[in-house]
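WARN retry 2 of 3 for item q-0093 after timeout on previous attempt; input resubmitted unchanged.
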Amino acid sequence: MADHQEASVTLPSEPVSVSAARRYVARVLAEWGLPVGSEAADTVRLIVSELTTNAVQHTFGQSPTFTVDLRLEREEQLHLGVTDSHPRWPQRLPAAVQQDNGRGMVIIRSLAKEYGGRLTVTPTAEGGKTVWIALPWSVPVQS
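OK item q-0093 returned
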């Protein structure tokens, strides 16, 4: 078994791509041994949904595509990244803010923390950014 497995997909920054990204991630994680419908799989799908929705809605047409990267390192850590070419980094709203949208990063941070993971944002060489979620992986990897 290799020290890591990787997969990625680049999609147009359109609302329909959010569900395509979720399906892609679910398929890859199932191939790596994470049962479809498990709590962990549902959590990762929710995180993907929130991150890709942000990439579509908050890039204001300045990022024609976004990329979802998955990397499983040594069967211990899952790294999930969503990259877009817009220079604006996600904004964290205070928990007390009452509104119907804009809570995606709060949800993502909360889920990552609940599962013992972390969220980071890194710049890309092209001036965009990647929002990364790292989560512990406790599923035996399928070859």
